[in-house]
Specification:
The structure holds two protein chains of two kinds. By secondary structure, chain A is of the alpha/beta class. Chain A has a single domain, classed as Rossmann fold. Chain B has one domain. A two-stranded antiparallel sheet of chain B has the order 1-2. In chain B, 27% of the residues are buried. Classes of the chains: A alpha/beta, B alpha+beta. The interface between A and B is medium-sized, with 30 and 21 residues.
């Protein structure tokens, strides 16, 4: 059993999609009897995040939110983890495994976390893309177009929670990606033409930093 | 910097994008077909990213087939 912290902001379409689709991750953590703490909606602020890290001491942290090369945000885009000198709290990642589903954080925040003692950091060095259906924005879990984007990325935390190493978890995500590509190519050519490029993009800009053999 | 040929190729692809689809790029926002076409035509940051992503796919598709 490991201590697990997940952030679930939901203040706009993207964060709402990522958080709603994190249900599968939450369910896995419960099934595996991990000690999970969730920061949801307006709870996802820096004060709560820093407090949860200190009191819950999670070995695995998953962050959903918007980001850039140096920072990841929570509710209403409040920065919760940053290597920018104005906040510089990357030492919070020391001794932990981080999966950050946010744009760009793998570029500078990831390396800064590793330098500060983070065991492993999985993130994205550029934009994390989702194709969604405009008519399903109010019901993200019914959005079949967005499903492969969220389910492929979900494989990483789910596998980590089930005891896989970081590298094994990423390979499982790649296997899921390949299945989704095959399914799209044999079912709907027009959709394939527009979904597959962005599914492959998310894979291309994903990085694994630190110890690839780490587990939680 | 995308070439004119790449730009035309991607614009032709975008013209086939279903109207209900929308690309979400984190804090940069969401873009439907019409918005994506404008971004590519104007050569914005988003437009250049779209060209890069579609061209990456076309190159990888060629490798898969070959």
């Amino acid at each position: 059993m490991a201590n697990f912290l997940i952030t679930l902001p939901e203040h706009d379409d993207i964060t709402d999609y990522c958080s709603k689709w994190s249900g599968e991750i939450v369910k896995t953590a419960e099934q595996m009897r991990h000690d999970m703490k969730k920061l949801k909606g307006s709870e996802v602020n820096r004060k709560n995040f820093e407090s949860r890290i200190a009191t819950h001491t999670p070995s695995f942290v998953m962050l959903n939110g918007h980001g850039n090369s140096k920072e990841v945000a929570g509710h209403a885009d409040e920065i919760i983890l940053s290597c920018d000198k104005s906040i510089s709290n990357e030492e919070l990642s020391k001794g932990r495994v981080l999966y950050v589903r946010a744009c760009g954080c793998g570029a500078e925040l990831g390396p800064a976390c590793i330098k500060a003692g983070c065991k492993s950091f999985v993130g994205y060095v550029r934009d994390f893309a989702i194709i969604k259906s405009k008519s399903k924005v109010s019901r993200p879990l019914d959005d079949e177009r967005a499903r492969p984007f969220l389910e492929v990325s979900n494989q990483i935390p789910i596998a980590i929670l089930k005891g896989s190493t970081i590298m094994e978890a990423v390979v499982k995500a790649d296997v899921k990606l390949e299945k989704e590509i095959q399914r799209l190519m044999t079912s709907d050519n027009f959709l394939a033409l527009h979904l597959i490029p962005w599914l492959l993009w998310n894979q291309k800009v994903r990085v694994i930093l630190g110890d690839k053999t780490a587990t939680i | 910097m995308a070439s004119e040929t790449e730009k035309k190729l991607v614009l032709a692809r975008l013209a086939t994008m279903p109207l209900d689809l929308e690309l979400s790029l984190g804090s940069m926002g969401s873009f439907d077909r019409e918005k994506l076409i404008v971004e590519v035509e104007k050569g914005t940051e988003v437009g250049n990213l779209v060209i890069e992503v579609y061209m990456n796919y076309l190159r990888s598709f060629k490798q898969r087939v070959l």
